[in-house]
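Proteins fold reproducibly. Next comes an illustrative record:
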Amino acid sequence: MHIKGPLADTPFVMPAWQRRITRQIFGWKRRDGSRRYRYVYIELPRGNGKSTWAAGIALYMLVADTEPSVEVYGAATDDRTATIVFDVAAEMAAKSPTLRDEVTPEKRYLRSDNGYYRVLTSKAATKHGLSPTCIIFDELHAQANRALFDVLKTAMGKRAQPLMIMITTAGDDQESICWQQHDYARKILDGVLVDDAFLPVIFAADPKDDWTQPETWRTANPNYGISVQQSFLEDECKQALAQPSYQNTFLQLYLNIWTQQAERWMPMAEWNACGTREIPDLTGRVCYGGMDLSSTTDLSALVLAFPPVMPDEPIWLLCWFWMPAARLKRREEKDQANYTAWVNEGLIETTPGNVIDYEAIRARLGVLAEQYHIVDIGYDPWNATQLVLQLEQDGHTMVKTRQMPGVLNAPSKELMRLVLSGGVGHGGNKALRWMADNVAVKRDASDNVMPDKAKSTGRIDGILGAVMAIDRLTRHENEKRKTSVYNKRPMRFLGR
């Protein structure tokens, strides 16, 4: 029975698309009689009745699964999300004369004679020892890392025919566990991969279609006209048109289109195109630096920008990154980044211990100064005082460059112009590409912009370093252009 909304207190009758999925899950058997599918990935827009359907599946597994001592778990990133499906199931059971005799409600538990259904959240360390027969993983896109997913998936091996149902809307993090499952599901749907145990179900609009049109909305929403009303989407669409910052939210939640952060800045197709040219040997070349020093437990970056010396040559960007070795795995899980792989590829340098050894940065700069003509290096003074003093003692010219919109507006826009015009080359550096894909911008009242760490979806240290390097380069180049012809020859005055 439906428990909320316009259909509250009416019998729960599955629409055709839900019946089709349910038949596939429970009707398709292996030779030994067990269920074919072990994993079900369902991705669809908000409001299409996924919680009601999932609650029904959880109750079925609780009272009708053939395995002894069933363990059904509702998993999510936090208590509020994890209890959504559970609360629907509890009310369904309470309103059903049949289920009232089969299911006993307790706090965070529903019990049957053959087992229980309970809620789990993301504290993965406490989940070892479970033996799940069924897992309902709600809003997978909200998982900060894959720890809970991995713990539950490996625990399923103790059962003869376990079932994990992943239900989610599209997300905005293409380094996440949800994106990995989405990508895997899409490859199965496209025939690129074959996995007889994995059932992929994705309802989404084509990103190329006009997102303002009702026909596009209908394509993406299987419950269109049932629980998803055109009038509601019309109102939300008007908001998205009037408020560009809301557009990605509309695409993600109501059309199930994967987006980036709320105010994505860097056009990644153009950024990727700037990485196709191989960086030449730049030994002896003039360059300008930008250094972003985060806290000693995070990631620090140095970027050198080399002005062109040949026609049609771009501004070349070389970058170096540092992290403390002892915190690599922890930061990898938190940031959802491929730090270990990038370390192995030589894209990130690690320093011993739990904090970055700034002596390693100092030593690297010493080597670079022998190879390149580093004119000066822009830096944000936060966290940098001691290292900057040491670098100045070593003979480097350090220029204070505060990370504020009024200061970084011009070089931020210049970097964007260079990317759009193909005027910058970065050699396809994977770590820098990940950071570029993370960038969201901060705007002040004068419409000055700069990359914003707080609003971005992940680390952007390399992009900030690039912006500061571009700042130093453009300031020097502009000074050269401003040099008047009268500075090169005596001025002549006409008499009266």
In short: The CA atoms of residues 74 and 374 lie 56 Å apart. Confidence is low (pLDDT under 50) at residues 489-496. The chain has 17 helices and 17 strands.
